[in-house]
Amino acid sequence: MRVIQRVLGSRLDAAFAERLHHLEHHGAVDVLRVPSADTARRRLRAVTEGGEEIALALPRDQTLFDGAVLVLEDHRAIVARVGAVRWLRLRAKNLPDALELGYHAGNLHWRVRFADGALLVALEAPAEDYLVRLGDLAGDGRLAHDVVDDAPGEA
Amino acid sequence: MTAHTHSHTHLPAASDPAPVTAARIGIGGPVGSGKTALIERLIPVLQARGIDFAVVTNDLVTKEDAERLRRSGLIDPARVEAVEAGACPHTVIREDPTLNIAAGDDLEARFPGLQLIVFESGGDNLASTFSLDLVDWWIFVIDVAGGDDIPRKRGPGVLRCDLLVVNKTDLAPHVGVDLDGMLAEARRARGEKPVIATNARTGAGVEAVADAIARAVLFAP
């Protein structure tokens, strides 16, 4: 099994772009799909889309990112593609409910963003697991909610 | 592996010699579930496999767990570091794991060639999770005597850990717990993520835990 010990750079780096473009034309760029929640792991075993089992053992000061070049050889490359972050978008219908929602999000240590008057929670589990934690606030229809990908907004 | 450069430019290869860093794993779970006992059982198993490792323990306001391991005779006491959480145990493994990261860095500096560092959280509740900035992979330990309804409560620790360990299996008949039912419920709650039953008093299931660690972060077959 190939053990990758560091990220070489970004596929957008000038030093890599031309070479990767050439390899892509020969169908020689393999992709490692990584869920967004796993990008912080420095050690990971995974199988590329091409079927190669690889291991990542990155230094502590490196993390995976979308477009990370992991392998670049004469006839083959492996590039990481990171899945979109899914967000649970919650919008309270009045100020008291918004305050209560904010309390729960903090108390539960959720990772959140704010955008257009809504609170967005980064999903690391099914949305239902988060809604059930809100109890009556979600169950009584006091919140509007849906799931969106890669929402814009301020962290 | 062979380092590669190609004819166009001198680009680094991922397989170039790089500073080798130790894998870092976490072991968390409620108070009294058997985290330290599991580590005590893991130590000789990891040693028998030739794995070079060290342990960082977390306690609230003492170094109790670290002292227990140091006095155990199982491991070189210098390979055990203690972090005092001071407040909520999850704070130092999730919100701000700086103290633990520093302890891990210190162990790596003192023991070149270290392959694995085990971070034991202080006893916490079912919402406890590890930051992946601190560890690469983590175990959550619950125990049979804590009640067979724990998996049903769907705590983040139970759901999100990479390996769920259900410890103290020997106590099931004494506390009125249907062990098979509890394990089935845990597996149902976790989907494809693994669950291992252990008895840290006898060592049952501990080899399987070591297998899971070795496979996940040391890349054993």
TrEMBL record, chain A:
InterPro entries: UreE_N, UreE_N_sf. Residues 16-78 form the UreE urease accessory N-terminal domain. Pfam families: UreE_N. This is Urease accessory protein UreE. It comes from Methylobacterium jeotgali. The gene is ureE_1.
UniProtKB/TrEMBL annotation, chain B:
Residues 25-196 form the CobW/HypB/UreG nucleotide-binding domain. It is found in: Cytoplasm. Keywords: Chaperone, Cytoplasm, GTP-binding, Nickel insertion, Nucleotide-binding. The keyword Nucleotide-binding applies. GTP binds at G29, P30, V31, G32, S33, G34, K35, T36. It comes from the Bacteria. The keyword rRNA-binding does not apply. HAMAP family: UreG. Belongs to the SIMIBI class G3E GTPase family. UreG subfamily. Homodimer. UreD, UreF and UreG form a complex that acts as a GTP-hydrolysis-dependent molecular chaperone, activating the urease apoprotein by helping to assemble the nickel containing metallocenter of UreC. The UreE protein probably delivers the nickel. Facilitates the functional incorporation of the urease nickel metallocenter. This process requires GTP hydrolysis, probably effectuated by UreG. This is Urease accessory protein UreG.
